[in-house]
Write a structure and sequence with these properties.
The protein has 469 residues and is α+β, with helices and mostly antiparallel strands. The chain is 31% helix and 24% strand.
């Protein structure tokens, strides 16, 4: 097969699919194609077994600054509004309680400071600071069996969106395919991308595609493709594989613990599964792996392509992994996958959430978990949190670890505007209709409008500087 398109999107996970939906539905671009190497859409990290199913707002993610939370919040509200609008029967998502738990005087003080002094209570109108009795009403197992003399507090919100990102991805693609000029190719692997006078030629296992603009949203492979075209030379990846442990229905919603300082990885949390409330997941662990996809040895060579095997990459890895907090954390996480030993070592993390859990109550979740590409800057020799975007000549490369799924529509809006510039103003974006179908569908407390704080419904929040996006 072959084709000529205005825009080709490489990657059929939630990032590529949300851009397909946005450009197909809300612009007048004539012809758009999405190319996915797997036989199914959302087959890798977007699959519901390969992520924690959390819609990140920044309210209980204690490794987020207020500025980062403000940035993520808008993106999460866009996706939440889409789900409220498109999924009234909650086949793709559910909505439950969500809280971050502080145990002991130090953690309780940190939560109170975050809520009152740092402004998170103002930024998130539905977020409440609650004590032991209210925690017990919402999540009985969190309090049951806990030392009554131990200080306990939580920041809790009803906006605990549990999302099947795979099903959401498929819904984006289904809606996009209703529009004229949209083609979706699965089982089609990109072999080469070559710049031309008019854009790019994309050679695939199923033929050649010519296009004026390209967006590569292929997860860890995005940087690999970028480097082949001479972009992103100052970046390498630190692939982190997340795993989970399963237990019975111990929790009604999501319960997070406080983030360890200086760590970019998620703190261990407990989650009721989106499709089966009788299952509680605990995790994720964070194990470094030399692959770009979980369980696929064939992607070791892809990792080496991205790594580059040069002095700057090795020195950057050495600098990142020599950190006195990060190195012990990495080593501990290697143990969690060891049979018999791993569950015993992980059990205290589960017991911090649910004290009464015993070793026989948890088991490794076989077949769960994906690889998240953490980005390392080889010039600064540092680990960068969040997402990376590389913009070239009529091409964008997106590398989207967490919270990339949560902010997929916000990223899609940003990339749509960029693509329209690539296409030299030939087409238009109906942003008003886009917002009406997404963020304006997000339910807010009475009297609170989009952009308001809870203290003053008429005082908009200050715009935040861009983060790692």
């Amino acid at each position: 097969m072959s084709g000529k398109y205005d825009l080709v999107i490489v990657g059929g996970g939630i990032s590529g699919a949300s851009l397909l939906y946005t450009t197909a539905t809300f612009t007048d671009i004539d012809s758009i194609a999405l190319i996915e190497k797997e036989d199914e859409i959302a087959a890798i990290n977007s699959d519901h077994t390969n992520n924690s199913q959390t819609l990140h707002f920044g309210d209980i993610e204690t490794n987020y600054t207020l500025e980062k939370a403000r940035e993520v919040k808008e993106g999460a509200e866009m996706l939440a509004g889409y789900l409220e609008n498109r999924d009234p029967d909650r086949e793709m998502h559910d909505k439950r309680s969500k809280m971050v738990l502080g145990v002991g005087n130090e953690e309780v003080a940190e939560l109170e400071r975050r809520y009152e002094g740092d402004g998170f209570g103002d930024l998130f109108p539905k977020l409440r600071s609650i004590g032991r009795e209210e925690i017990a009403e919402i999540e009985p197992k969190v309090v049951e069996g806990r030392d009554p003399d131990k200080e306990l507090r939580a920041l809790q919100t009803p906006d605990g969106y549990v999302v099947d990102y795979g099903a959401t991805t498929q819904s984006f693609v289904e809606l996009a395919r209703e529009e004229a000029g949209v083609d979706v190719y699965t089982g089609t692997k990109v072999k080469d991308i070559t710049p031309t006078l008019d854009g790019y030629t994309i050679e695939t296992t199923d033929g050649r595609f010519d296009c004026e603009a390209t967006v590569v949203a292929a997860g860890s492979h995005s940087l690999q493709i970028a480097k082949e075209l001479g972009y992103g030379e100052n970046k390498v990846l630190l692939p982190v594989a997340g795993s989970f442990f399963l237990a019975d229905d111990l929790l009604n919603g999501k319960v997070y613990t406080l983030q360890m300082k200086k760590l970019p990885f998620a703190a261990v949390h407990g989650d009721a599964d989106v499709h089966d409330s009788s299952i509680t997941r605990f995790g994720p662990t964070a194990k470094l792996v030399p692959t770009l996809e979980r369980g696929r040895i064939s992607t070791v060579t892809d990792f080496l392509d991205v790594f580059g095997l040069n002095a700057a990459a090795f020195l950057s890895y050495a600098n990142v992994l020599s950190d006195r907090i990060l190195l012990p954390y990495v080593l501990r996480n290697l143990v969690y996958d060891v049979p018999n030993v791993g569950p015993k070592q992980f059990l205290p993390h589960v017991q911090k959430v649910v004290p009464s859990v015993e070793l026989d109550d948890i088991e490794r979740a076989k077949g769960y978990g994906g690889v998240r590409p953490q980005i390392v800057d080889t010039e600064k020799k540092s680990l960068d949190m969040g997402e990376a975007k590389i913009v070239g000549d009529d091409i964008i490369f997106n590398i989207t670890p967490s919270p990339g799924a949560s902010t997929c529509l916000k990223n899609a809006r940003r990339d749509t505007l960029e693509v329209l510039e690539f296409l030299e103003g030939e087409y238009e974006f109906d942003e008003e209709a886009f917002r009406e179908q997404t963020i304006e569908q997000f339910p807010r407390p009475d009297g609170i409008e989009e952009g308001d704080t809870d203290e003053d419904a008429g005082a908009p929040l200050e715009p935040s500087p861009a983060d790692d996006d």
